[in-house]
Amino acid sequence: MRMDVAIIGSGPAGINAAITLAKKQKSVVVIDEQGKVGGKLIGQLHEDPKDGWWIGKQIAEQMKREAEQVGVIFLLQREVWAIEPGWSIKMSGHEDITASYVIVATGAQENPTPVPGWTLPGTLAIGAAQVLNNYERVRPGKRIAIIGVDPLAFTVAQELKLAGADIVGIYLPPEGLFATEKAKPQSTIGYLSTMAHLAPNPWLRLAGSMAKHHFIQKMGSRFYPKAGMKVFGVPLRLRHSIISIEGTDQVEAITTVKLSSEGKAVKNSEESIVVDAVCISGGLVPLVELASSCKTVYIEELGGYVPLHSPEMKTSKKNLYVCGNITGVEGAKVAMEQGKLAALSIVYKMTGDEQLREEVRSQKEEVNRIRAEATITFMPEIMSGRKKMEQMWNEYVHESRDTHDIR
Amino acid sequence: MDCVICRCEEVLLSDIVRAIEDGYTSHREIKLKTRAGMGICQGRTCRLLLDQVIASVSQGPVPKTIGIAPNVPIRPIMLGDLAKGGGKAK
User: Contact at 8 Å (CB) between A198 and A375?
Assistant: First the structure.
């Protein structure tokens, strides 16, 4: 099979890139390891204060229909294990695909915080619990504890509860090597307050409105009730952390410890709570493996290592583009606009059409506009992360020029 | 607090910390010493954790480039796929 463009990943970024390219009469194939189109969109379900309910499953189905109508080919349940310049796309058990351009839209992976006992069956990363619950319709457990306080933990807590699970609480992770600020009540309240303004989830609005200023943050952690606060029946325990997960062959209980307002463990405050599942939320990290032939840079504000890329989404490798969470952890709406931008950049490169240059320019603005309006910000410093990337790209272009290494 | 870091090779956090203290400070050195990242998933899970352990124990910043570079095949595959050598599948 020979195509103009091969896209790896059928999430919001990948599908929108495909639709845009197909509408411009380019032949496009989208490859995904899962059996359904949509990536992490499929599990998303929340109420947006501006736009009403965001039902990811329906959005994914709509986008898939639109894509197929304009001629996009989907190849599902195929794992890409290498992309070789040219581009030759290698997939497990299937024929290679050749394409003039590649868009790597592989999204992000979870980075659950290690906790003693976390390898016991019944412990899941929070995103895995979300997929199991919302997509496979299998409830991960009857009595569930959640470790980690962030937007995904809140959303999934609510979804698990809708599925009839008893959530014993959302707890802080144990303080240590893998969690420093995330394990402290005070900084967690501060973090929550950054997303109080337009949070799509009533949880976040409530938790966030607790503290917008440093003073209140301090008071917040001191006066935060030791028993936790119940929001929609789920206790948010900012003064407790889970120090271990117990069980012989599977999860049977968690051990918690009380925290002082400064986040220090209170002596002899250990308590064992019976649960049959534990979900760990430790944040998301861009999934860069397939783009590892590109120059990669570490930008903490974007979520970790990301492929160096231009504001138009091109990488250091000729004819290899990126979009979506592989470029930095953000919401689905931003990913979609990045997908369209990557697609337009490719069409401009292919045709040199002046009108396309204008479309690329205005789409870049659109990405920024949607980013500024985002209701959930996964990475609080995302804007400065994006600026750093642009600077690094400019430096790279300069250096390449100096060494005649220009592509 | 001890826990498993590399699930494939069952390497504990304490094994990695001890290796760093013994002078094995880079990803590669730690991998060769402890086998962390050498199992079937090739570090897909523990690579991120090793970054954090190294930065924390050595009290330095996270390295600018990825420690254990992901090699192809990036997913476990059948030997048959490799043997085809880019040829056509049936």
Answer: yes
